[in-house]
Design brief:
Layout (H helix, E strand, L loop, with lengths): L1 H7 L4 E5 L24 H12 L4 E5 L8 H5 L5 E3 L6 H14 L3 E7 L2 E7 L6 H5 L9 H9 L26 H20 L9 E6 L4 E6 L7 H17 L2
Parallel strand pairs: 1-2, 3-4
Antiparallel strand pairs: 4-5, 5-6, 6-7
Helix pairs in contact: 1-2, 1-7, 6-8
């Protein structure tokens, strides 16, 4: 969905990476998921949809995903990385974020949460992924919680989930909606436009922004030190407590 939004904004060159094929479980939220695309590689399907918007697009497809052996080619000539990775792929995300930082490539990342979205920007001269999320040295089973709290410290979506037990970090399962993904695409596209054109104020980490359409709330949060901040540590403890209650 990000790709189509950016193509409609007039961006003409892309490197697109995804190693998955479309399946029925993608129908509730992912652009490109349809009966006609079942079993087809996501990256190639999305590249085809983008070319239907602009046949002159220059798109290079990496349908094996981003791996240590191709990250250099994936980032070659790139001005901005837009993170559309799955929630739980922490090794791949750290690989790309570290490679972007080494090359001075800014990152914008919007993630669907409930019926809203949160957006973060990582700039080359600001905190790194590990500086902000503080995963290093913590138990791996706590990484999804720390990631969530870093993404959306305000947790605007926490109050209206009908079945809290559906959130199962151990099973790598979180609820998602198509409308949240559409909001993500709009938010990421706006940040991409500002970064690429040098227009407008860019709030980068330790700033974060979350908009929730269900509650009608918009929240900007500033957390120096990222997840090392005392309020973040309290939020991590709160989320862990809520999850433990949901599964007891």
């Amino acid at each position: 969905m990000h790709l189509l939004t950016l193509a409609r904004l007039g961006i003409g060159k892309f490197h697109v990476a995804d190693l998955d094929d479309f399946a029925l479980v993608n129908f509730n939220r992912q652009a490109g998921a349809s009966l006609g695309s079942l079993g087809q590689p996501k990256a190639r399907v999305m590249a085809g949809l983008a070319r239907e918007i602009n046949p002159e697009l220059d798109i290079q497809v990496f349908d094996e995903g981003v791996q240590p052996q191709n990250v250099d080619a994936f980032l070659d000539g790139v001005d901005l990385y837009v993170d559309g990775l799955d929630y739980f792929v922490f090794p791949a995300r750290r690989l790309v974020y570290d490679a972007c930082r080494a090359r001075g490539i800014p990152i914008t990342f919007a993630v669907p949460l409930g019926m809203g979205a949160a957006v973060l920007n990582f700039l080359p001269d600001g905190p790194s992924f590990d500086d902000y999320f503080r995963l290093e040295g913590t138990p791996e089973d706590e990484w999804p919680t720390r990631f969530l709290v870093g993404l959306a410290p305000a947790l605007l979506h926490r109050g209206y989930l009908v079945y809290p037990e559906i959130v199962d970090f151990k099973a790598q399962r979180v609820p998602s909606t198509g409308l949240a993904c559409q909001l993500c695409a709009g938010m990421a596209g706006t940040e991409a436009l500002k970064i690429l054109l040098g227009r407008g104020k860019i709030r980068a980490v330790p700033h974060s922004m979350q908009f929730d359409a269900y509650t009608g709330k918009l929240k900007h949060v500033w957390r120096p030190g990222g997840n090392a901040h005392p309020l973040q540590r309290l939020a991590i403890a709160y989320v862990n407590w809520r999850l433990s209650r949901a599964h007891t």
